[in-house]
Amino acid sequence: MAWxxxxxxxxxxxxxxxxxxxxxxxxRLGPTAIMVIAMIGSFWLLAVxxxxxxxxxxxxxxxxxxxxxxxxVGITVLGEAVTPMRIAAAVLIVAGLVLMKLSAS
Length: 105
Prior knowledge:
InterPro entries: EmrE-like (IPR037185), Small_drug/metabolite_transptr (IPR000390), Small_multidrug_res (IPR045324). Its main location: membrane. It is a single chain. The chain has one domain. By secondary structure, it is an all-alpha fold. The protein contains four helices and no strands. The two termini are 14 Å apart. It has helices at 2-22, 29-49, 55-76, 84-103.
């Protein structure tokens, strides 16, 4: 169940990162509220997952889901640049997440 919590925590991290971008420096109330709620939920689910998962594994996977997810949202929703270097960086992050998951007992 900890992996499910961690996955949802990562998804909420993507949501709060996108909402932060949409808040325009916290000047828009709606996206700012979404960001705060998603952030609290993300941290709470991460903490619940850490009851059973090792710190290094949980934190690395949480940040990795957020980083790659935010990268994909940036490309698909915000029209950010797709370059070979950025794609290679995302692939390396995903490879690290897979290795971290495989190393967890």
